[in-house]
Amino acid sequence: MTSTRPDRLAGILFDKDGTLVDFDRTWGPAAYAVMDILAGSDRARLEDLMAVSHYVEEERRFLPSSPLIAGSSAAYGPLWAKVLGRPAGPALYREMDSLFRQEGLRHLRPIGDPAAMARALVDAGYALGIATNDSEASARAQGEALGLTPHLTYVAGYDSGHGAKPEPGMVSAFAAHLGIAPDRLAMVGDSPYDLVAGSAAGAITIAVMSGPMGEAAREAMAPLADHVIASIGDLPALLDDIADGAQARSAGWQPGR
Questions:
Q1: Are residue 169 and residue 215 in the same domain, yes or no?
Q2: Are 31 and 144 contained in the same domain?
Q3: pLDDT tens-place string over residues 47-83
Q4: pLDDT per position as a tens digit, 33-43
């Protein structure tokens, strides 16, 4: 996809896991700990949780088919509830979210230096936010641990009232929060869910190849994205290029002239 929008971007909305946070190194061990706690030392139950989660115990990671990679606890929670013999619903999901928040912080590993990147983008005049299918409380706790909190104007999780990705609600809410049109935003993420949500809201979409599938995600992601980069480390240069293109278009320059 090629963007022809004329205005300089004003806001950047980041997915969290796989974009700012190393998914495998953070959630691989964290999820194992959560499953072990909920299984209550019952090995058979733990194995069943790993099976429905498409989790590879020996490698402490999820298969690309795992419902946990892009989904919220409300999405995969019914699978866990069935294994655990517990009612599916908010009480269980809150318990899961609390455990994931605890273990996610314990094992948190960033991608690059998110705080330095965020500081540079804010200094360049961009407003920043996070939109994640993790819980809002977990997103805020990890943002604080990564040094992002001073640079964020908006944080939304699946439970913030805007819906979960791939629905566009989080992106639309960020635009409303800033008081700007959605086409002056960029949604940055490692999952098709991020790109579909961004496009549906009318935002520019930027795919990063830093998620659990790495470069193997390019084939699926590229058709959904306005731009594709390796990681957030390449984002400032891309935004400079987008701004330069917007400036040229506003001055009346067109390719071939």
A1: yes
A2: no
A3: 999 999 999 999 999 998 999 988 888 889 999 999 9
A4: 999 999 998 99
- Verify that 70 and 185 share a domain, yes or no: no
Q: Are residues 94 and 122 in the same domain?
A: no
H, E, C per residue of 93-116: HHHHHHHHHHHHHHCCCECCCHHH
**List of residues 6+ apart from 88 with CB closer than 8 A:** 77, 78, 81, 82
Look up the domain containing 88 and give its range: 24-106
Do 170 and 222 belong together in one domain? yes
Q: Note the pLDDT of residue 72.
A: 86
Tell me which long-range contacts 204-210 makes (C-beta under 8 A, separation of at least 24): 204/3, 204/5, 204/9, 204/242, 205/1, 206/235, 206/238, 208/18, 208/19, 208/232, 210/18, 210/19, 210/22, 210/111
What is the four-CA torsion angle of 71, 74, 76, 81, rounded to 10 degrees? 170
Alpha carbon distance 51, 83 (integer Å): 10
Whether the per-residue pLDDT at 239 is higher than 90: the answer is yes
pLDDT grade for 243, boundaries at 50, 70 and 90: confident
Q: Are residues 32 and 116 in the same domain?
A: no
Is residue 211 a contact partner of residue 232, using CB atoms and an 8 Å limit? Answer: no
Residues 16, 142 share a domain: yes
Please answer whether residues 223 and 241 qualify as being in contact, where contact means their C-beta atoms are separated by less than 8 angstroms: no
pLDDT, averaged across the chain? 92
